[in-house]
Request: fold
Amino acid sequence: MKILITGGAGFIGSHLCDALLQNNENHITVLDNLSLGRLANIEHLSGNGNFEFIQGDILDEGFVSDVFAKSNFEIVFHLAANSDIAISHTKPEVDVNNTFLTTYRVLEMMRIYGVRKIVFASTSAIYGDPAGKKLTENFGPLLPVSHYGASKLASEAIISSYVANYQIQAWIVRFPNVVGERATHGAIFDFIRKAYKNHIFLEVLGNGEQNKPYVYVKDLVEAILFVWNNTSDQINIFNIGVDSRTKVKEMAEIVLKEAGLDREIRFTGGNTGWIGDVPEFEYDLTKIQNLGWKAKHSSTEAVRKAVQQILLLTPQIINL
Reply:
C-alpha cells in the first residue's frame, strides 16, 4: 500500500512509520517541514527501500500538488499540526495555519488526485473543559478552550464535509496526552530541563492537582492501526487512551526520582498550567475497548517509561 504520512518525522509520526514498515508491502512517504519533526527520528529508516522522506511545507500548494501528482497514494495519515498548545495563545495564527489549513490542503489534494482514505490525528482538546464529565465520542457541545483544540475541531468538521461530498472514508482518532521517546516538548520535557538547570527547586505550573490520562506513544500507534484495520464506516471516530490518570505533581515526583535529583517542588498556584490548559479530564473508552483494544501501559507507567527514555537525552534537553 502506498501511504503518505504528513508530519512523519515528528514524535508520533516517526513511531507510526516504524509500525507501518513492519509490513513489507507498505511503501511510506513522509512529508514534513521539520518545524517540529527531526531527521534524527527517521534516520534509521533511510536505507529502507520502502521509505521516502520529502521535506517541504503542506501550505505550499504547488509543492504539495507535485508530491501527490508523482505518487498514487492510497491513504493519508495526517499528523502534521502544531502540537504545542501553549505557544498559540500569543500567536493564534500558528494553529490556524499549521493545524487547520494543513488539513484543508491535504483534503484538497486528496479530492484532486483521487485519494479516498484519511486517518486524522485529533485530540482531547476538542472537548474543551468538561467540568468532571467523562468524555464519550458523542459528548457535546464541543467548546474548545485552546486555539489548538478549536483548529482540530474545525479540521474534524471539514473532514466530515469532504467525506459527504467526495466519497472519502475517514478515521478520526482523538488522543489525550502522549508521552514517550522522541518527544520534543511537554511537561516531562520541561520538568527535566528545569530540574537540571535549577539546583534548588522545580517549578510546576498550577497547583499540581491537574489530573489527566497519559498514553505511551507505542500503545497509541498500535491503537491507531487497530482502529484503522478493524472499522469500515464512512467516518470512524474513536477516543484513544488509558483507564487511569496521573497528576502533574506525581509526574514531577517521578522525574526527580528517576533523575536522582533532590529538588523542592514549588507550585505557581491556580488549577491550570497556562491559558488553554484543561486541568482535568477522563475518557470513556468503552467504544475502543468493545472493539478489542486496550493500552498495555497505565498512565503512570507511561509517564515513568517516558521519563526514563527522555533522560537518555539529558544534555540535548538542557541546552535547548
Q: What stands out?
A: The chain has ten helices and 15 strands.
